[in-house]
Design brief:
152 residues
Length: 152
Amino acid sequence: MKVLFLFLAFSLGWLIAQTIKLVAGIIKQKGKMSFSDVRYYMFKSGGMPSGHTASFVALDTALALMYGIEPVFAVAVCATAIFIYDAVNVRYAVGEHGRLLNEIAESDHNPKTKPQKIVEGHTIPQVIVGAFLGILLGWVTYVIAGAVGILT
């Protein structure tokens, strides 16, 4: 049953981070959003806060609180570090390259050349906010699990 709460921590990290992006999008667009705009913000890659970081840090936090600092926690933290590194460095660079390629495609004036979707990475502040959100949500999940008697 504890495993369900670990999945809950991970899912809440993603859901809350993406909902924050949606709310920011609603504010930015002054409340005028179509369904496709809502879908865009809920599944947006990149942006504030990092949903990847929030999800994995929430899982790591709940894992540490439920089971202690055990070898499986070390594996989870190592995987989280790889995901965060990828989001900040690799996906961010890919997004920058994508923007440049789209500029070249637009200036090409070739009807066969179409702009491509940009995959955004994260900045350090986006990851830091995602990490704090993840710690909070991992702790909240742990408290809920304790309240319903799962931890005893």
